[in-house]
Design goal:
- The structure is a homodimer of 387-residue chains.
- Chain A is an alpha/beta fold and 387 residues long.
- Chain A has a domain of 134 residues: Thiolase/Chalcone synthase (Peroxisomal Thiolase, Chain A, domain 1), CATH 3.40.47.
- Chain A contains 12 helices and 11 strands.
- In chain A, the strands form 2 sheets. In chain A, strands 3-2-4-7-1-8-11-10-9 form a 9-stranded mixed β-sheet. Chain A has a two-stranded antiparallel sheet with strand order 5-6.
- In chain A, strand 5 and strand 6 form a beta hairpin.
- In chain A, helix 2 crosses helix 12, helix 6 crosses helix 9 and helix 6 packs across helix 10.
- The longest helix of chain A is centred in the first third of the chain and has 16 residues.
- The relative contact order of chain A is 0.20.
- Chains A and B meet through strand 3, helix 2, strand 8 and helix 8 of A and strand 3, helix 2, strand 8 and helix 8 of B.
């Protein structure tokens, strides 16, 4: 049996001083259960995508969702982790359990509470996702700066394209009430180092970096034999997962080789190419990551993504809109929630339920969720199966 | 297709100053691949069971095993976490993927590096597995002391039975070359508080506590349609997973309600009772946990486990030998490795490959792996399908 998405929940992303990790998890999960209009007793098992790495002291969070409702007590729950792709890790594990017949109704939650630490603490916790033996002490801006530098050496300066990506994603976020930032950025601001847009790790300026966010997103997945009980559903035309080795030193940093392989595998399994997609939600943890993903997706050849981006191919009115939600850049990036959030927002587009974000005639959506420096990549091709 | 175990690896448990987490993972994984006599290229995906919670700075470890062999690059890998049941969490996720058809050959590794921190650091990291909102600052000895206190209030003092469990498991470990401690303890030593056996958290003495360990264990699982390619295999007659709510305050501490439910579900699915088992590897993180598990297994009724243990029902020569490996108590407890280790050691018994530990005529084995204070429980009933 194939898994299908029949409900979802999504907190606003941002700073939630009054909500801890458990609150965020239960808020998104409760909303997903209501959205699917199911009895909590119908849920067979739960998956949590969560990175943590010191962001919160709760080292064992899988059962936090169990506490949401007495009917969930004594059911299986587990946490899955693949750094910033932890949300997709949870989702894919749930899909395996449905395909394998262990469960028919799955609750998947992705969540992260990041604002409890100061900037230095968050930077250190996220830094735990790098290869400690070689990269300890480097921040993630440092790591993605290396990708940008490698790109510049091979193909030329990506800074202008990166600025266009920031502008586009901030503009898209204006239509997303769940986004953390509702503030348009203009191109000049993004292009220039300034007091309000300092260099974080050359060539990455503040405007190239995604946000520190609290948030959670949730999905209800059911086995396709239950489709008759639901009025709307989104299915997976294809999925692919690729893990590259951890050390940056072993990788070509001017390309996203792991993501490119995962995307190619998903396209092949779906029998499609980039031209068939209506929209994509991709992992713009830094603007250079979106540029490299645009090339990995085949929207443009390696080294030619800059022109495509600058010419508007990935804008809302372009050939393939990328990150209509605002992306990690402006929607926010509570790391464990991000992969689930991408699938929620893609599903809503495919069902015509995306509000002001809605793209007319959205029929096929791509999600690309990445952990670490192109280490773990999950790619889903989604389509409505009942709308 | 059903998953079957066709190979395994297992480092010695103990203090490995020269080995870091990556070394431990790769050591056990390499041994498992050799044991199954497969080409690494045949592996479709990898799962890592690992708790971490600050024990090591590596916050993103799933891809460490990918680095073992160039043939593993670009294959899926993910970490699963359910506190001290993380090893089983990884194993069960891999089983779902095989049953669902996404993979045919899976590599599962459980690993933990604990000795890099001092006792206070380890205690704090493990303490992260409790419900922080109510239990922060309590150690796990404190938490299991509460179970022992609740048991004493309802049924009478469990201390004598706890001492017998410690003696038994240390004696069993003498036959296990992979065990951390090869030192017999005598009953009087375990019964008395002394300089060498101090009270850790009343009524738990040092001799009631499992060990701080470095170690890893690994399994190769394949889809049963590949059985013809292997000379020996162990199958899962039944599996069950139960997650209770996280707060201790919501639970009856004189019983292991979650584990009892999981065990009953596994027995029912396997069509067996405790009397049908040849042996069990259970989660004796503290001796009180083994006592409560003995009752949850139905070896004795609630409150009557003490007599069964004292009379020797769970000794090597008893009706149902429990923890022939030495258990967490004497084999060691590198938390993420423990669930995988249990399955390795049970599989070896069922295939007649357990060396000095070997029990004659072992035909059906139970594994009970638990995370937190009876929060997450995984129960497997194993049997040889090809020997």
């Amino acid at each position: 049996m194939e898994p299908v998405i029949v409900g979802w929940g999504h907190t606003k992303f941002g700073r939630h001083d009054a909500l801890d990790l458990e609150d965020l998890i239960q808020s998104a999960a409760g909303e997903a259960i209501a959205s699917a209009d199911i009895d909590p007793a119908a849920i067979d098992a739960m998956w949590l995508g969560h990175f943590n790495s010191g962001l919160v002291p709760d080292g064992f969070c899988s059962s936090m969702v169990v506490g949401l409702d007495p009917a969930l007590r004594f059911k299986p729950a587990v946490r899955c982790e693949n750094a910033c792709a932890s949300g997709s890790a949870a989702l894919y594990a749930a899909m395996d359990a449905i395909r394998g017949g262990r469960v028919r109704v799955a609750l998947v939650v992705g969540a992260e509470k990041m604002s409890g630490l100061g900037t230095a603490g968050v930077t250190a916790a996220l830094g735990g996702a790098s290869y400690q033996k070689e990269e300890r002490g480097q921040s993630f801006p440092d790591i993605f700066a290396k990708f940008a530098q490698a790109y510049a050496r091979r193909y030329g300066d990506p800074a202008e394209a990166m600025a266009h990506i920031a502008v586009k994603n901030h503009e898209n976020a204006l239509r997303n009430p769940l986004a953390q930032m509702h503030r348009a950025l203009d191109l000049d601001f993004c292009l220039q180092v300034s007091e309000r847009n300092p260099m974080i790790s050359d060539p990455l300026k503040l405007s190239d970096c995604s946000l520190v966010s609290d948030g959670a997103a949730a999905l209800i997945l059911v086995s396709s034999d239950l489709l008759g009980e639901f009025t709307r559903a989104v299915g997976f035309r294809a999925t692919a997962q690729v893990n590259d080795v951890l050390p940056l030193s072993a990788k070509d940093l001017a390309a996203f080789e792991g993501p490119a392989r995962a995307i190619r595998a998903a396209y092949a399994a779906a029998g499609i190419g980039a031209r068939d997609l209506s929209l994509a939600e991709v992992h713009d943890c830094f603007t250079i990551a979106e540029l490299l993903t645009v090339e990995a997706m085949g929207i443009a050849a390696p080294g030619q993504g800059r022109e495509a981006v600058i010419e508007g191919a990935t804008r809302r009115d372009g050939a393939l809109p990328v990150n209509l939600s605002g992306g990690l850049k402006a929607k926010g990036h509570p790391v464990g929630a991000t992969g689930v959030s991408m699938h929620v927002l893609a599903a809503r587009q495919l069902l015509g339920d995306a509000g002001e974000m809605q793209l007319p005639d959205a029929s096929l959506a791509l999600c690309v969720n990445m952990g670490g420096g192109a280490v773990a990549t999950y790619v889903s091709v989604l389509e409505a199966v009942k709308a």
